[in-house]
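Q: Given only this backbone (494 positions), what sequence would you predict?
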């Protein structure tokens, strides 16, 4: 049985450093930034020529900009810089929502790209200080990755808008390797760096989940347009769920390291975000993942039942409180506007997965068409939006990769994912008994994420000319997932 993976006497390492000690200094820095932001918002009500409809938005934007200016000066302070650097993409998610339509959209906006320019600068400073050792295999992997990105950039000439192709190339070819080197440099032998990064991802997970719920409630309260459309556009729901799935293994590991009893409440947070993000893919994948996580982590079946009951109780109470006011049941019914009951159980599930209900199949066919035009090196970064039906991606990692990066990019991307997954699966047998259950959670989560990004949204590097979202959060979490065994080894012991 799964619970047999846990042997008697197996205990999780209790870090000598409490979670609050990792977060104390970053919290104080954020408080300073928001204080300065309030002062700047008071003195500069129309900064950069914006005319915001509320002083609250002006304050939040100035506070985030102040924090971004502070972060590069903290690279020598290991704990604070580790937490704040990894929180930049989480903060950027809401920062761009707050910017909304008041600034130039997508890759053409300097303000939207500023967080990632600051992140790249700070990563380079931190890497120069840590000096991580690079193996020959990693060096070869970097060269292959850079060359594939360069081919995709060159292929985009004359196809995509130049600024979109250039920004996509910079995010892929510069930030992704920098994140890899940064994470490797911070994984110190004593596990302190691993726990710092877990603390950052735990905070980011909670912030992203509940922040998206709040954005959804605000959007649902908006009058004058279809509330479901407004909510889904505002909260960037599909991408957020992909981010939460990738962050889940680190959240579980953080809970096991500091407080196992928090897992039910973290699961309730995840379920609450699914309820308010109105994603059918999330509804199909996240609840089973929570059950699997409980069965693997809990040592007794009764513990799993109690944990899931607590999580569902929290979500249920919130649903009763707010469901009627915001017509949540009616909005979810709109998400299933096809009579699935007439199709039968298994055919209905197959139909949804094939994309017929949501129109995904037509979008995927565009990806195949673009791939057939340039099958070797693809049409280049940003080409799906420029040549396709107008979406920034094909709502599938497979078809987006094939259309934009061709067989070369497909081989590189899926080769890296496949090599990591095979290494993880083969490592399960040799893993310590205390580590093995956690690695099973990682495999289960990766399977859910893999299905999600191939059926719903390819949320790895998000960039668009017409949309208001630019983010590298998915790529950052995916890179960190490559170090799963190192995180577990440094955080869990028999």
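A: Predicted residues:
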């Amino acid at each position: 049985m799964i619970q047999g993976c846990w042997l008697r006497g197996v205990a999780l390492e209790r870090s000598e450093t409490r979670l609050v000690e990792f977060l104390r200094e970053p919290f104080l820095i954020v408080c300073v930034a928001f204080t300065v932001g309030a002062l700047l918002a008071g003195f500069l009500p129309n900064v950069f020529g914006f005319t915001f409809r509320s002083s609250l938005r002006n304050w939040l934007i100035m506070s985030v900009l102040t924090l971004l200016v502070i972060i590069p000066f903290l690279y020598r302070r290991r704990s604070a810089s580790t937490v704040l650097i990894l929180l930049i993409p989480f903060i950027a998610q809401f920062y761009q929502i707050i910017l909304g339509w008041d600034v130039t959209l997508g890759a053409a906006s300097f303000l939207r790209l500023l967080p990632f320019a600051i992140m790249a600068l700070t990563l380079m400073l931190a890497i120069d200080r840590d000096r991580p050792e690079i193996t020959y295999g990693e060096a070869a992997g970097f060269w292959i990755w850079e060359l594939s990105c360069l081919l995709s950039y060159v292929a985009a000439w004359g196809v995509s808008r130049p600024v979109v192709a250039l920004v996509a190339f910079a995010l892929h070819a510069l930030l992704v390797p920098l994140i890899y080197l940064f994470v490797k440099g911070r994984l110190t032998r004593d596990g302190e760096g691993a726990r710092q990064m877990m603390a950052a991802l735990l905070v980011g997970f909670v912030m992203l989940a509940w922040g998206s719920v709040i954005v959804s409630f605000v959007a649902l309260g908006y009058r004058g347009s279809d509330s479901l459309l407004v909510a889904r556009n505002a909260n960037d729901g599909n991408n957020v769920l992909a981010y939460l799935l990738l962050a889940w293994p680190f959240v579980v590991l953080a809970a096991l390291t500091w407080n196992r009893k928090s897992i039910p409440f973290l699961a309730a947070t995840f379920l609450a975000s699914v309820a308010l993000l109105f994603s059918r893919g999330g509804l199909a994948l996240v609840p089973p993942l929570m059950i699997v996580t409980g069965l693997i982590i809990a040592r007794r079946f009764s513990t799993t039942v109690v944990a899931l009951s607590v999580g569902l109780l929290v979500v249920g109470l919130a649903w009763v409180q707010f469901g009627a006011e915001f017509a949540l049941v009616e909005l979810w019914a709109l998400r299933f506007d096809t009579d699935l009951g007439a199709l039968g159980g298994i055919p209905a599930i197959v139909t949804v997965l094939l994309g017929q209900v949501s129109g995904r199949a037509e979008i995927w066919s565009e990806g195949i068409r673009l791939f057939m035009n340039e099958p070797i090196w693809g049409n280049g970064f940003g080409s799906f939006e420029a040549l396709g039906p107008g979406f920034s991606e094909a709502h599938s990692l497979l078809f987006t990769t094939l259309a934009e990066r061709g067989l070369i990019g497909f081989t590189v991307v899926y080769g890296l994912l496949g090599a990591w997954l095979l290494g993880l699966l083969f490592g399960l047998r040799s893993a310590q008994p205390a580590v093995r259950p956690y690695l099973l959670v990682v495999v289960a989560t990766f399977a859910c994420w893999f299905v999600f990004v191939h059926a719903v949204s390819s949320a790895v590097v998000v960039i668009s000319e017409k949309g208001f979202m630019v983010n590298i959060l998915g790529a950052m979490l995916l890179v960190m997932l490559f170090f799963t065994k190192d995180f577990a080894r440094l955080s869990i012991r028999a």
